[in-house]
């Protein structure tokens, strides 16, 4: 997070980091999103702690900025999470993990529910 803050300050970029939780108070899942100059870059979901989510979103954002990539394309996971919240279904997928691998042009997603594939 510090490295991204320094990068944005050095380059005159406005950084905003937002975090949100879903699920029960004793076991929330966190999502975070970094916006640079009004454009969404790093977005992550399903982290156990707010700080972890913010750090991962910052890492993704910094990677994208340093690689010269543009803002993130439409992310479907946040849309899915919004749908779950709106329909009070967050408990259905309370224990889930998503991992992204591969390149941005050929992403590979792995979803784990209740610790299983």
Q: H/E element string?
A: HEEEHHEE
| Poorly predicted tracts of residues | none
Please state the second-level CATH architecture: 2-Layer Sandwich
Shape label: globular
CATH fold assignment: Double Stranded RNA Binding Domain
Determine the structural class based on helices, strands and strand pairing: alpha+beta
Domains (count): 1
CATH C-level name: Alpha Beta
Give the C-alpha Rg.
15 Å
What is the number of strand segments?
A: 5
Protein name: DRBM domain-containing protein
Pfam families: dsrm
GO molecular function: RNA binding
Domain DRBM: 1-67
Give a verbal description of the structure:
The chain is of the alpha+beta class. It has one domain: Double Stranded RNA Binding Domain, CATH 3.30.160.20. Helix content is 32%, strand content 33%. The strands form two sheets. The protein has a three-stranded antiparallel β-sheet with strand order 1-2-3. A two-stranded antiparallel ribbon has the order 4-5. Strand 2 and strand 3 form a beta hairpin. The protein is globular, with a radius of gyration of 15 Å.
